[in-house]
Amino acid sequence: MIIDAHVHLLPHRLAAKIRKFFVDRGAPPLLYPYAPEAARQELLSAGIGSCWSLPYAHRAGVAAALNRWMAETFRNDSFVVAGATVHPDDHMEGVVREAVEILGLAVFKLHCSVGSFAPDDRRLDPLWRQVSETGMPVIVHAGRAPQGTATVEDIDAIDRTARRFPEARIVLAHFGSPAIEKTLDLMRRRESVYADLCPVVADPVDLRRPQFAGLERRILFGSDTPTVAVSISDSIARVRAWRLEPGDEAAILGGTAKGLLDLARRGAAPRTEPGEAKA
What we know:
With 279 residues, the chain is of the alpha/beta class. The protein has helices at 12-24, 36-45, 63-73, 92-102, 112-115, 125-134, 152-164, 180-189, 232-241, 246-266; strands spanning 3-7, 50-53, 80-85, 107-111, 137-141, 169-172, 193-196, 219-220. An 8-stranded parallel sheet has the order 1-2-3-4-5-6-7-8, sandwiched between helices. The radius of gyration is 17 Å and the shape is globular.
């Protein structure tokens, strides 16, 4: 089963504002409708078996209501894994506790560009402590540039967080593009760091097979539907074009995402030590 670990099925009004943001800035034609029901159907039609829907907050006071919408909307939806978000200006402990203990949301998403905060902002510590205990993955869009791209300094900030919270499972969105080599280096040094293959609007992750040898089981497939100009089928085809061992390909296309969720559902992350990760 293919699991798309980076999708945004969001409230219609918010989704419309996001689409307008991209259109107003001259984005290339985005392939999928932004309404959550229609985007969900596109994923199904493309052969996706399950998806992680990731909200994000642009300011304080938004996350709690958005998390409640996610939980209510997808409570009985076996296709959608509903995610949560938080902003560092929020009452962090309260928002995180509600998302995990009351709403039962399965993953967290942080968007540093949209929210205008650093990946290693110390106000996020309550989140990192929580996910260190539960094993819940956190997908982090680390880039803070207006266009969302990441720099070496942004990846260094993720490294500092991973060093302080070695049990937290951090998934770098868009493979930290364009700082891909820095992301690969970080993944080799920190066993808790993963990355997803989401295109950056019209630009697929520029990754070649020799670069990630030994890291296949820490890469997740993601399409960024509906805010993307690369088709879901083309993104899947790029993975299959690597001609990986069947187990490695299956891990990228869903096995690793499933494993992270299984870990979270068991309620505890395995203990790891800071330092050099196994390649």
